[in-house]
Amino acid sequence: MSQVYKIVLTGGPCGGKTTAIHFLKQELTHRGIAVFCLDEMATKLKNAGKTPENMGNYAFHSLLFREQLKTERSIETSAAEAEAEKSVILCDRGLLDNKAYVSEDDFKQYSSKCGCLENQLLCSYDAVFHLVTAAKGAEKYYTLENNKARSEDIEQARERDDAVLSVWVGTPHLRILDNRGDFQEKLQRLLQETLAVLGIPKPMEIERKFLILYPDLNLLEKMQTCRKVFLSQTYLNTPDEGKFRVRQRGAGEQAVYIKTIKRKINEMKRIETEEKISEEEYCRYISMKEYSLGTISKYRYCIAWGSTYYELDVFPFWDKLALLEIELLSEEEEYTIPDFVTVLREVTMEKAFRNLALAKKFGNK
Hints:
With 365 residues, the chain is of the alpha+beta class. The protein contains eleven helices and 14 strands. The strands form two sheets. Strands 6-10-9-8-7-11-12-13 form an eight-stranded antiparallel beta barrel. A five-stranded parallel beta sheet has the order 2-3-1-4-5, sandwiched between helices.
């Protein structure tokens, strides 16, 4: 069985998704990876004469969602059966893109009929790459000519780009590829991000962490590109499996469960492997009290600001402090801090501010 990765390329109109998918397919195939592509479903339906105008907006997007879900599941089966060690599914838009075009109630109605909950959809892809529309920063290249289904002017394209980005905020691995430099640079950045997700050459996690003043939660919750997520993390050290972490992401029926193993390279860099587990497996792990190193719960505010994705964690035991994390491609990569965040100091190298240390000090055994 091949190890399957599912990646979404999304963004506003004329962001370069179609070209980017062809580029990635060629580059990944050369590296011995089996690549499966899922074309943009909305364009396929419109080219077949099925449009929101002649079907109604709800009926069109409900059909789009069902067709994409069916196609994704079919491709997943084929990808898993591929002979290559790794398989990649490249989706020209994902299931949640649909939400940017309908009301909250409409999306919830037809997605729930398909047995799909929003938080589970957010966590169903290994990465989401938002290719910013050319209408933001590369206006001279914005065109309607290369897609008959595209109709937005520049201002509408910018608004659509913001709306699409906002529905994906909260997914664990979101990257924003803006229009700095030329389009070839954008493609090269996309390739680097893709290889990092695939663990080529190794499944590396590189992050910087900052101790910050407790944020204005009202401000965060009003931001279009911010999503609040509940997390509970239990750290274990068992005779059979050694040290690892199990995490509940989301609450109630929306919850997703993940097992993570990390191996430290240095204070900033770690090799990380993750796998989704069932609720039953998660409950079995957290019941192993004799092997528990501690459990910590928090609310994570996932924030897309500028061209960077931030994770801001607030904890029940702090009312004046919080932590901000930025995941990077390299230890030298430049970054900026949002202007609504007050940094006290960087704590990337300080063991006392790792989640395991906080779980041991403040959490439950």
